[in-house]
Structure to design on (117 residues):
């Protein structure tokens, strides 16, 4: 695939006298893809990996490298500035208040009288 992609890039650049840009990449890649992924190459890839016809000996134990243990936890060496952290800190420093409606508050508000029409 890499070889065909390089060929298609060269063809494009020779034809247009310009480098392949973002807007051109999909078309160039598409031509390389059509050249490479034929029924024969797909069958050869399946045979090389031992998938079809099934061949468990196609890939040896020496070719298979065991995975390394990894961790999903991470930490930063320095605390990262964050607006969320600032808000959380501000909220933690202030005591919670009750949000109960006050009847006297509503009594002082003006009321709308009249028809909406």
């Amino acid at each position: 695939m890499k070889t065909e992609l390089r060929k298609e890039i060269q063809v494009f650049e020779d034809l247009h006298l310009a480098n392949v840009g973002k807007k051109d990449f999909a078309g160039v890649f598409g031509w390389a893809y059509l050249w490479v992924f034929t029924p024969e190459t797909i069958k050869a890839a399946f045979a090389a990996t031992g998938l079809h016809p099934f061949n468990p000996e196609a890939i040896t134990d020496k070719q298979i490298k065991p995975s390394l243990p990894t961790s999903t936890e991470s930490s930063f060496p320095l605390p990262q500035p964050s607006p969320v952290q600032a808000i959380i800190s501000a909220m933690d420093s202030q005591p919670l208040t009750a949000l109960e409606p006050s009847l006297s508050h509503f009594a002082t508000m003006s009321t709308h009288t009249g028809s909406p029409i």
